[in-house]
Design a protein that fits this description.
There is one protein chain. The protein is α/β, with parallel strands linked by helices. It has one domain: TIM Barrel (Alpha-Beta Barrel). 32% of the residues lie in helices and 14% in strands. The protein contains eleven helices and nine strands. The longest helix is centred in the first third of the chain and has 22 residues. It is globular and about 80 Å long. It holds the Pfam family GDPD.
Length: 324
């Protein structure tokens, strides 16, 4: 009996040692280089993020402005790249005349002087709107950007033409699979070299459609992110990469990262071998996904010499702090 117990203990010890050696980042090759910075919406006006719902008008909760950039504009995107972003995220909505508008909100009422569903308008109609109309930091007493955003809502084509060699992350705001079909047609018309610089994330249904029609594009959805992270936590110790972690964008909240086998370098190497890219986020606290790495304190939670991706809403600050 004692011999069996001793053999069992030895077997467990050998197994534990094998798991450790297979997953410790200490024995993984270190990824050289600077972090890859992703600027969410370019340079944007910040807002009070407490108690947000899907219907919250964030323009009406703007914090006192530190600059005059309006998100999702050519000027904002350019400023994001100039501040050190390697990738800029933009939001798209289809228009009634077959284009894609770069704009965040599902409706026009919050930020603009327009009304109704964004996708229920033509691009010409939206070009006539003032996208700075609704921003206020004092409860509606003043509107500092009113009148400055007329004609500033770009099309996806304009963004692609203005930044032909820059990396972009396109956010599909709907759950409509037909939107995935329309966006896939736009992407498939690009050159192979340009397509390599594009990623797409958003609703499960349009993203699945893009995966099918434009399989070379890296994509992500809430469903794929959940499947990837849970699968990896569950059996990533084997070295087997879940299918959901291949050819995708993996978002990793900083408080979830320590649970990932081989974090950071072995994890990053495994994702790279699966043709995937990783971006660290702010802490996940349940409900909606987490915020970005927006403060020096959150940046300090990443490993020393971390060279993966960083998602931020404060590219002008994080770009300087990360050395980009």
């Amino acid at each position: 009996m004692r011999r069996k117990i001793r053999y069992s203990i030895m077997a467990i010890a050998v197994f534990a040692a094998a798991v450790y050696l297979n997953n410790t980042s200490l024995l993984a090759s270190h990824r050289q280089g600077m972090p890859v910075l992703l600027a969410h919406r370019g340079i944007a006006q910040r807002f009070d993020e407490r108690d947000l719902t899907n219907d919250t008008c964030t323009a009406a909760r703007m914090l006192p402005p530190k600059h005059d950039y309006l998100e999702n504009t050519i000027r904002s995107i350019r400023a994001g790249f100039d501040a050190g972003a390697d990738i800029v995220e933009v939001d798209v909505h289809p228009t009634t005349d077959g284009q894609f508008a770069i704009f965040h909100d599902w409706t026009l009422d919050c930020r603009t002087n327009g009304h109704g569903l964004t996708r229920a308008h033509s691009m010409a109609q939206m070009k006539a709107l003032d996208i700075g109309y609704g921003y206020t930091a004092d409860g509606g007493k003043t509107f500092p950007f009113r009148g400055t955003g007329i004609g500033q809502m770009p099309t996806l084509d304009e963004v692609l033409q203005t930044f032909p060699d820059r990396r972009l992350l396109i956010n599909v705001k709907s759950r409509d699979p037909s939107e995935g079909e329309k966006l896939a047609a736009v992407l498939n018309a690009l050159s192979a070299a340009r397509l390599e610089l594009i990623m797409v994330y958003g609703g499960n249904e349009p993203v699945q459609t893009i995966q099918r029609l434009a399989p070379d594009v890296k994509t992500a959805s809430r469903a794929s992110l959940k499947a990837c992270l849970l699968g990896y936590i569950g059996y990533g110790w084997t070295g087997i990469l879940p299918q959901a972690c291949k050819n995708t964008m993996v978002l990793v909240p900083v408080n979830i990262a320590p649970w990932l086998w081989g974090w950071p370098d072995r994890f990053l190497n495994r994702m790279e071998a699966g043709n995937s890219v990783v971006f660290a986020l702010g802490p996940y606290r349940g409900g909606d996904f987490s915020t970005g790495i927006d403060t020096p304190e959150l940046l300090a939670k990443l490993p020393v010499d971390y060279s993966g991706g960083i998602w931020t809403n404060e590219i002008e600050a994080i770009g300087k702090l990360s050395g980009n």
